[in-house]
């Protein structure tokens, strides 16, 4: 109803309506996130849900005990606003009643929530052990692969996934046929872990996430994927709300709960958009962080030498004497540049 009224009254096309709706959702989630976190942080502090610090990070010792699992706060806010939005949409108050779109919308949210639950279990295990190690890597991977396979299967069954990959800055279409599905699974698992490993400095994962989700909202306007616009707008608002408390010096950390949720939502939108390669360029800062960690581990096992002073690479810059605020600012700018490149790869083939 609102969609039709705005279209008739102001003659606004679909892409502009998606932008307006995404920004309205972002604003609502921002305010609800701030309110949720104002309540959540004291509760976490009261119950001593404090972040254990890895013994190798001596310069982070002062952060020990900072409330963690703050991701719960912005996830609850995001889900609450989206539940209200879905109810209004299904009733025809906002616009669509597009059942197929809502199904994909639910799948993407479920991918994010299931990965967040892995993070919850991991964060709780860390707290019980009072050390920066929760679930064993193989345990996390088994769960993540199971959820990734379920997501890809559901998307394929509903006809909302493509086996054809558009190569950015070209009109070349690469058809991988059935081989696309295992590739999707690997990308999902790899990307959710990349957002997780990037969450190592105050405001780093949230600020880089803001640049990527903001660009996804812009992409949804070009592709006219309304539901992707709503989800990306919601995550944008949630991360902005979280950054109010997570900027240096952080009053709360998102924990694996929040970082795995971010990765699940972004990669889910990437697959739905049909522009996976371009969106991976947008998320390149996340990807480079996990690559640096993998390179360090592999090279050390082979040569007993290190490529970086410390991995992932954001800690390398810390060891070089960079302040956290400088690293976060530089990484955000680099992420924004990659986002612009990825978006241009779609707009200018």
Provide a descriptive summary of the structure in words.
- The structure is a single chain.
- The chain has helices at 2-10, 14-46, 71-90, 99-129, 137-157, 180-198, 204-223, 226-246, 255-273, 276-282, 284-303, 313-319, 324-347, and strands spanning 164-166, 173-175.
- The protein is mostly helical.
- The relative contact order is 0.15.
- The protein is built from 13 helices and two strands; from the N terminus they run αααααββαααααααα.
- The chain starts with a helix and ends with a helix.
- A hairpin with a 6-residue loop joins β1 and β2 (173-175).
- It is globular and about 50 Å long.
- α2 (14-46) packs antiparallel against α7 (204-223) and α7 (204-223) runs parallel beside α13 (324-347).
- The chain has a two-stranded antiparallel sheet with strand order 1-2.
What secondary-structure arrangement, pairings included, does this model have?
Blueprint: H1 2-10, H2 14-46, H3 71-90, H4 99-129, H5 137-157, E1 164-166, E2 173-175, H6 180-198, H7 204-223, H8 226-246, H9 255-273, H10 276-282, H11 284-303, H12 313-319, H13 324-347
Helix pairs in contact: 2-3, 2-7, 2-8, 3-8, 3-9, 4-5, 4-8, 4-9, 5-6, 6-9, 6-11, 7-8, 7-9, 7-13, 8-9, 9-10, 10-13
């Amino acid at each position: 109803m609102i969609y039709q009224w705005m279209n008739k009254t102001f003659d606004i096309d679909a892409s502009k309506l998606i932008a307006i709706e995404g920004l309205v959702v972002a604003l609502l989630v921002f305010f609800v996130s701030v309110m949720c976190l104002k309540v959540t942080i004291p509760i976490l502090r009261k119950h001593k849900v404090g972040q254990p610090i890895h013994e190798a990070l001596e310069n982070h010792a002062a952060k020990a005990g900072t409330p963690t699992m703050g991701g719960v706060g912005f996830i609850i806010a995001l889900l609450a606003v989206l539940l209200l939005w879905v109810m209004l949409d299904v009733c025809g108050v906002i616009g669509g009643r597009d059942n197929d779109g809502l199904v994909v919308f639910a799948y993407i949210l479920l991918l994010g929530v299931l990965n967040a639950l892995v993070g919850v279990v991991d964060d709780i295990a860390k707290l019980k052990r009072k050390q920066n190690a929760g679930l064993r890597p193989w345990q996390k991977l088994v769960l993540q692969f199971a959820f990734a396979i379920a997501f890809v299967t559901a998307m394929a069954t509903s006809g909302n996934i493509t086996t054809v990959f558009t190569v950015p800055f070209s009109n070349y279409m690469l058809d991988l046929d059935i081989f696309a599905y295992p590739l999707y699974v690997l990308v999902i698992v790899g990307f959710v872990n990349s957002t997780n490993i990037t969450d190592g400095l105050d405001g780093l994962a949230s600020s880089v996430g803001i640049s990527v989700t903001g660009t996804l909202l812009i992409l949804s306007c070009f592709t006219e994927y309304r539901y992707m616009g709503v989800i990306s707008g919601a995550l944008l608002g949630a991360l902005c709300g979280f950054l109010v408390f997570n900027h240096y010096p952080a009053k709360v950390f998102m924990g694996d709960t929040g970082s795995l949720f971010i990765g699940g939502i972004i990669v889910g939108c990437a697959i739905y958009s049909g522009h996976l390669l371009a969106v991976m360029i947008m998320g390149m800062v996340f990807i480079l962080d996990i690559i640096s960690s993998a390179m360090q581990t592999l090279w050390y096992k082979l040569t007993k030498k290190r490529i970086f002073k410390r991995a992932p690479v954001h800690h390398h810059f810390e060891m070089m004497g960079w302040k956290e605020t400088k690293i976060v600012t530089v990484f955000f700018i680099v992420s924004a540049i990659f986002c612009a490149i990825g978006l241009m790869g779609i707009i200018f083939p």
